């Protein structure tokens, strides 16, 4: 892929996920706002466009050993992977994080009142993410698998109750943006997950886990917004046009 200023952040990361770390360091949202171009983010962030493009091109020339080419995966495999890896991660890690946040709020909340807001934001995020994931697992992902079966087995076809896959996708993308913004607030409140000098070990571990949670969420949203969703829309359009 020849990278230019007109490429969107999302398509660049979809082509080579190693670029995500560079965008993260520059504070560029590659998941929820991945539809912005290099030109747009450089203007918004006051970045030197030529330098950013060169850094991206340098990354592209490096060895890709260990990188995962998610774009090459069958779309139903990608849906399975998101469900088994990222959805499960949210469910399992949130239990531990909620316990730790409650604990440090109890012990340190008097001197660090921002912890209570962090805890409130995280709990709100988990409630919404759980609902979000149920919708994906019971509505969107089964429809993706149904489309794959249609292409492979020429099964009978009928339009879903939601009429087009673009409708649930629009809802999912909107919910992704809400959670992305919520974690921006958490990041700001925690000074980029930097524990204060008086932080105990639990405090430090909690901030590390919050940072890890946000990073996993970024990859999770990227895989959906920039790879799974566009391919699902293309697949549906192909099926409908060939009925």
Describe this structure in words.
It is found in: Cytoplasm. Its main location: cytoplasm. Residues 84-232 form the Hemerythrin-like domain. InterPro entries: Hemerythrin-like, RIC_family, ScdA-like_N_sf. Keywords: Cytoplasm, Iron, Metal-binding. The protein has eight helices and no strands. It has two domains: 9-61, no CATH class; 72-241, no CATH class. The chain is 72% helix and 0% strand. The two termini are 33 Å apart. The chain has 243 residues and is an all-alpha fold.
Span of the ends, CA to CA? 33 Å
For the report, how would you describe the main beta sheet?
none
Give the strand tally.
Answer: 0
Strand share of the residues? under 5%
- Poorly predicted runs are none
Mean pLDDT comes to: 91
Gyration radius (Cα, Å) is 20 Å
Shape type: globular
Q: Structural class of the secondary structure composition?
A: mainly alpha
- DSSP helical segment count: 8
Relative helix content: over 70%
SSE series = HHHHHHHH
What is the count of distinct domains? 2
Subcellular location: Cytoplasm
Pfam families: Hemerythrin (PF01814), ScdA_N (PF04405)
Protein name: Iron-sulfur cluster repair di-iron protein
Keywords: Cytoplasm, Iron, Metal-binding
Provide a brief overview of the structure.
This protein has helices at 9-15, 19-25, 38-45, 49-61, 75-108, 114-153, 166-189, 201-241. It is mainly alpha-helical and 243 residues long. The protein has 2 domains: 9-61, no CATH class; 72-241, no CATH class.
């Amino acid at each position: 892929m020849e990278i230019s200023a007109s490429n969107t952040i999302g398509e660049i990361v979809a082509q080579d996920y190693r670029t995500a770390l560079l965008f993260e360091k520059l504070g560029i949202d590659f998941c929820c706002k991945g539809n912005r171009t290099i030109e747009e983010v450089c203007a918004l962030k006051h970045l030197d466009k030529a330098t950013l493009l060169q850094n991206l091109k340098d990354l592209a020339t490096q060895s890709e050993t260990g990188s995962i080419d998610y774009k090459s995966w069958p779309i139903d495999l990608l849906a399975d992977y998101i469900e088994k890896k990222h959805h499960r991660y949210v469910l399992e890690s949130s239990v531990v994080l909620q316990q730790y946040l409650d604990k440090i709020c109890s012990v340190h909340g008097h001197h660090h009142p921002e912890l209570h807001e962090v805890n409130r934001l995280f709990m709100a995020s988990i409630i919404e993410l759980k609902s979000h994931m149920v919708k994906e697992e019971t509505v969107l992902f089964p429809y993706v698998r149904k489309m794959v079966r249609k292409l492979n087995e020429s099964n009978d076809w009928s339009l879903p109750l939601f009429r087009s896959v673009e409708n649930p996708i629009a809802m999912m993308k909107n919910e992704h943006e809400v959670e992305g913004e919520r974690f921006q607030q958490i990041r700001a409140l925690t000074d980029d997950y930097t524990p204060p000098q008086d932080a105990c070990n639990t405090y430090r571990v909690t901030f590390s886990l919050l940072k890890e949670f946000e990073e996993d969420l970024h990859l999770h949203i990227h895989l959906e917004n920039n790879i799974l969703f566009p391919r699902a829309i293309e697949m549906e359009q192909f099926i409908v046009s060939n009925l």
